[in-house]
Design a protein that fits this description.
The protein has 219 residues and is mostly helical. The strands form two sheets. It has a two-stranded antiparallel ribbon with strand order 1-2. The protein has a two-stranded antiparallel ribbon with strand order 3-4. A hairpin with a 5-residue loop joins strand 3 and strand 4.
Length: 219
């Protein structure tokens, strides 16, 4: 989507570039990879920063951003609260919407697509590491990013394409999904299948809310 905006509105894309001062603010704030807990040293452990919700996609949050690329004000998106720091390979997955953060589940890290690059470094934490303060990453931007991850995940295919039906059913039964006794602290939620199932459950909840909202409108 960023590429589409850049092609159709280069002025907007240019205005939405991540600046050096904001990058430094984020690195100084986090001082570690918020996804793995790794403290930067050098090489593959070096921290990089990225937008949580790219300002060039601002039209998805408010239509005013896309009406006039030259005149629009992106200042409320161009802030350090809309930036996170992490190991380069993890941040790449985050930028590609293959990894997201479920704010509603105590900031649980959800891996939507398995990557071999993660095998060579410190494993992901189950939840991101946030330091409370005035400029911590905003829940609003994390939610917007997570919505993008869910949308992209749907386009990539269904969990049934990667796992056998019985395997999925056994997994969901063991984690208490069918009887309503879900243990959110179970480490299996951090596995690739656990991430797939978690994303599926979230999509189901979102669909149910949408249906309820539609029904209420028609009353």
């Amino acid at each position: 989507m960023e590429e589409v905006v850049e092609e159709n509105s280069p002025s907007l894309s240019a205005k939405a570039s991540l600046t050096a001062p904001i990058i430094q603010q984020a690195l100084d704030r986090d001082r570690q990879c918020i996804f793995s807990g790794v403290v930067p040293s050098c090489g593959s452990d070096a921290l990089v920063a990225t937008w949580v919700f790219p300002p060039c996609l601002g039209h998805k949050a408010k239509s005013k951003y896309y009406k006039d690329a030259d005149a629009c004000d992106l200042s409320d998106l161009m802030v350090v609260e809309n930036v996170v720091s992490g190991r380069k390979d993890i941040v790449t997955l985050f930028w590609e919407n293959k990894l997201g953060v479920d704010v509603e589940d105590d900031y649980r890290i959800i891996l939507f697509e398995v990557s071999e690059s993660l095998n060579s470094g410190v494993p992901l934490k189950s939840h991101i590491i946030l330091i409370d303060g005035l400029y911590r990453p905003s829940d609003r931007f994390l939610r917007l990013h997570f919505q993008e991850c869910l949308a992209v995940s749907v386009c990539r295919g269904d969990v049934m394409e990667d796992y056998h039906e019985q395997e999925i059913e056994n997994f969901m039964e063991e984690l208490g999904i069918y009887n309503g006794e879900i243990d959110t602290g179970d480490t299996r939620w951090s596995t690739p299948l656990g991430s797939h199932v978690h994303a599926y459950l979230i999509r189901q909840k979102m669909a149910e809310r949408s249906t309820v909202g539609s029904d209420m409108t028609n009353i």
